[in-house]
Amino acid sequence: RAEAARRAAFRPAVTQDGHRVEVAANVRGPEEAAEAVAAGAEGSGLVRSEFLFDDRAEPPSEEEQFGLYRRLAEGFGGLPVVLRTLDAGGDKPLRFVNHPAEANPFLGLRGLRLSLAEPALFRAQIRAALRAARHGDIRVMLPMVDGLADLRAARDLIEKERLSLATPPVEVGIMVEVPSAAVMADQLAREADFFSIGTNDLTQYALAVDRLHPTLGARSDALDPAVLRLIQMTVQAAHARGRWVGVCGNMAADPMAAPILVGLGVDELSVSIPNVAALKAQIRALSMARAEAVAREALNCATAAEVRALPALRALGGA
Ligand code: PEP
Ligand code: MG
């Protein structure tokens, strides 16, 4: 029994009608790589590199980062590893960066904005990632991209470092988690190699509800049709340019959300390690035709509650 379950976890997630969805794991560091692979993850769709920077008086050196990213690349044994550059600021302040006080840190210097404001910090991380990419399939993902200007600035810096290191090109993608990025996805898809939708922040910013709010939690549901429409725009824009799209927010692990995301054409879902096997099993039981039909129904609902009450979705989501 345990052996059969283990073998099933390693099989790809292919729907009844032959549509493959990649299932990857969100990890925080190299110690989780072996566990993710053993759970059946087909790579990592999100490495939260903040683990290296949290609670430190000094930033980690390029050398220290290189060692960790190399272990990550090797731990995944050549499977794709999407390394997200430092996503600090907002709810995740850094001790060694002198942040100006901000009245609204979630609307302030966070994510890629912070990296571009601290180029020495960003350069060290990029150089470590580029060097580690020689040891596996490392891809670089930029968090909190709000538009093309910052994407271009980041890509320029990455290309300069790559030329100085003489390392091979790596894919450079973006998180789509700011509504402006979803709206401008057609433009961004020209210059980003892939998208990964961060539904935690995308929901927060689209619905104007703090993701950590103590009492408004029930209003911030990623199944809100407003969020689903932003996801649909993002997927359509990416596919029109031949780019792949993942979802790495918590939504990907919600059994009620998976059929909709698959039906909207999302290519990859990245979830925490304990959710990998169940998500693969759920996808294998779906048909793409039914998932597309339920996604269309969901896009036409008025509220998240209506989406969650759809009989066709409840049947596919196991409710
Ligand atoms: C997200 O915003 O959905 C996401 C995956 O990033 P984080 O939760 O780290 O902000
Ligand atoms: Mg986020």
Automatic annotation (TrEMBL):
Domain of life according to the entry: Bacteria
Location(s), subcellular: Cytoplasm
Role this protein plays: The phosphoenolpyruvate-dependent sugar phosphotransferase system (sugar PTS), a major carbohydrate active transport system, catalyzes the phosphorylation of incoming sugar substrates concomitantly with their translocation across the cell membrane. The enzyme II FruAB PTS system is involved in fructose transport.
Family: Belongs to the PEP-utilizing enzyme family.
Name of the protein in its database record: Multiphosphoryl transfer protein
Species this protein is from: Teichococcus rhizosphaerae
